[in-house]
Amino acid sequence: MNAPISLNPIFLRHNKYDECVTNILLSQEDADSWAAKFRMISGRPLDEANPILDTDLSLGNVRARIAVVQRPLSPHGLSYAVRRHRDYPWTLPLFIKNKMLNSFAAGLLSFLIDGSRTMLVAGTRSSGKTSLLGSLMLEIKPKYRMILIEDTPELPNDYFRKLGYDILAMKVRSSLLENSNEVSAEDGIRTSLRLGDSSLIVGEIRSNEAKALYEAMRVGALANVVAGTVHGSSPYSVFDRIVNDLNVPITSFKATDLILVANPVKTPDGLHSVKRVVQLAEVRKHWTKDPLEEGGFIDLLTYNVETDQLEPSQDLINGDSEIIKDIAAGVKGWSGNWDAIYDNIVLRGKTKQYLVDQSVKLGRNDILEARFCNIVNNIFHEISDEVTREMGVPDSKKVYPLWVKRVDEEIKKFKG
Fold it and tell me: What is the pLDDT of residue 16?
């Protein structure tokens, strides 16, 4: 909604229909009334000294992020941008169905999250970073505590709580505000280290909190998942932003294990774009100054524009991943056994693909949603644990048919 509001129709960008034109005009009175309400809801200022307001709006299951701009930044008065979130969290099977990634990539991400790695989800604006981060949170076992830190709530913490997750959401001061009664993101992250053993999820790395986040990665949370989103179109642009723009020391940046990149990809006609995960890179630890020149980034997955698919790199296929080897070193039966490790990655991908296939076959979109995915993820861990006690490793030939049998029973009972 562009200023002057009473002279400009609402512009709408739709997930399915792209750019839409409307004939809806707001009155100036409506615009002023909304501004007053958003000030009250957020507890944040909106005036000439603070002409930008970021907040969120929740109405039942409907959630949206609201950005308001006023004079003097917007000379013609109030302007609004409303980004409506999906009613429920995205899941890896949903992303497979929408071709954001494929089943192998989903299996690898599930494996890495289960291995308690530090991961940054990078991308340009509207690339799906936050949605992707939410889907990865579902791969964390519900019994493990999560601390979620955001300046404007976008991740559906209330829904995770309803699924049985042990989650504490912390709202911190926006980086756009210099003075506020809210706690800074930097202090919020440091506080999280005093709250006991937890996975740490940071909604978006924007400013000084980057140093505190890397402090958490290095000293306080290395036994748990640490993940967040950051603007950047490649692993090197993430390095450039964090080290050169946000002044995180190079030695601290190397606490990052993985960088997952999602970007819009243009369709052949040039008129549309589709969201895709385009790269998963591992951050090696041997380099000293420039990871690009010194081979500090090793691709595990790369996007093939011709096939519209993510493909494993030769380094991954050959077992040349220090991060995956490090995960395996702590698991009985996996240390030095690349075949067993790769088997587990493929197994996890097969379970995600099975849900997608059954959804199409049965016309059941509900089994791709977070509530059912949470159920079948728990079943996967239960069966894997049982098979590991029996065979020493969670062999896919034993785990997969047992999992399919249980999941088929759950599908019959499940009412989305």
Answer: 78
Name the residue with higher pLDDT: 328 or 215. 328
Alpha carbon of residue 162 to chain centroid: 19
d(CA 10, CA 79): 11
- 324-335 mean pLDDT: 86
Query: Mean pLDDT throughout 282-288?
Result: 93
How far, in Å, CA of 324 to CA of 318, rounded? Answer: 12
In eight-state DSSP terms, residue 242 is: I
**What's the farthest any 2 CA atoms get from each other in the chain?**
71
Q: What percent of the chain is predicted at pLDDT more than 90?
A: 59
Query: CA 217 to CA 320: how far, in whole Å?
Result: 24
pLDDT at 193: 67
| Residue where the block lists tokens 């894997």 | 384
Residue 275 pLDDT exceeds 80 = yes
**How wide is the angle at C-alpha 18 spanned by C-alphas 16 and 19, nearest 5°?**
145
The verdict on pTM exceeding 0.85 is yes
CB 70 within 8 A of CB 78: yes
What is the secondary structure of 243-295 as a DSSP string? IIIS---HHHHTT--EEEEEEEEE-TTSS-EEEEEEEEEEE-S--SS-TTTTT
Phi then psi for residue 291, to 5 deg, are -65, -25
Q: Do the beta carbons of residue 260 and residue 299 sit within 8 Å?
A: no
Can you point out the beta strands (E) in 70-183? 79-84, 118-123, 146-150, 167-171
pLDDT at 257: 93
Cβ within 8 Å of residue 363, ≥6 positions away: none
Q: Which two structure tokens, joined as six digits, stand for 63?
A: 């959630």
End-to-end Cα, the chain, rounded Å: 35
